[in-house]
Protein 1
Amino acid sequence: MPTGKVKFFDDVKGFGFIASDEGQEVYLHGSALPDGVTSVKNGTRVEFSLFDGKRGAQAMSVRILEAPVSLARRDKKPADELAVMIQDLIRLLDGLNGRLPEPKSGARIAAILRKVADELDA
């Protein structure tokens, strides 16, 4: 059976593409994923069977071989540090009193929100 890595997968649309080890780009529909699996992350190694669909190669009977290793996960902050970060963010947002921040402050707040989101991302 051919193998490859998930190039990208759109959770909302329910499809993506696999870059096969042979260099072929293969269409991946969500219905080809294993039972109970609704999404795959980019870089996930998979094994699959192929068939020629209307628009080219399409994956069937996908089996997940190896999930991608998240390097960012090693650098995650401990929960107590993250709690302090979130408390500071809440104070900052409360200080806006329902108003939009100035552009410079807005950029800082957006950067903090992104950092908190990255820390919470599994």
Protein 2
Amino acid sequence: MPYIEPASRIVLIVVFSLFSIIRVLYYRRAMTAGYATVIEESRKYSIWLSVFICYEVFTFFLYIWFPQTLAWAGLSLPAWSRILGIVLGVAALLWFVWIHRSLGTNHSARLRIKDRQVLVTDGPYRRIRHPMYSAFYLLHIAVFFLTANWFIGVTWLAGLTFTVVLRVRREEEMLLERFGAEYGSYMERTGRFVPPLKPVRSKPE
């Protein structure tokens, strides 16, 4: 159908525009709280994240404004897959809003622990320790269906996976250093990216 490609590009622009607005609004709110950083990630993590974000922005604009440059990696997916991409994209945006609202002023674009930071264990963090990463995966899968481009799908998901592997263990080490046994107990009753399969039973007193 000739309208699918331009419609998908419009949806992508809307989704990423809203995503950017959500991130900027909550990031500014966290910055204006005036919390001081007490533990921060090493420079190599932030450098890789910046490189990966630049790559995604570059390929995103290539697909939007110069689609012929990536046409060689296009896939003939059914029309319903684009609708699925829209649904997943909207779900990811709503999830991002829920996550950011739950984090409040604890949010940070980089791995850092602030002096007045609290351990958030409610909302999307009740059963999952890293719902932000899960939401990013959902968004990236939505992008794959909306673009129907295997090169974008593979490289974006591979880059995201490498980023998560690089950061998540260090993030948990920082949280253990800051919150100690409280975070250790929280780790036992939650899953990293999806809820645990079995409910955690309270230990008898």
Protein 3
Amino acid sequence: MIMEKSIIFANDIAEISKLAQFIEEIGEDFSLSPDVVFNLNLVLEEAVVNVINYAYPKEEHQSIYLSAKLLEGSIVFVLTDTGLEFDPTKAPDADITLSADDRPIGGLGIFLIRQIMNEVKYERIDGKNVLTLEKRL
């Protein structure tokens, strides 16, 4: 059985509380463990905050779409926005061997996403960023 759920956010940091609530609901609806829900919340908050902070000019109000689909043995999230093109799969891994003071700013969120999710795929389709994140359960 395939279960699906989706939500639309404004590109406003105040919307992040809606994301946490959405992930909690998915956890309940899809019977996910608290550990999985925690990790999904971490990953999706990182991805959505990056879109809010970097995809659009500050004064531009746009929507960010997130869908979740429970498949056989995995959960797949698709994050879609119409912001500036950015492929996080091409970003270099953060060098976590460096101290926090020596490490350049940025890149840790993408590193975290890659560590937690089993598959991270990016496509640019019809002027939209489409980030697909899969976690095997």
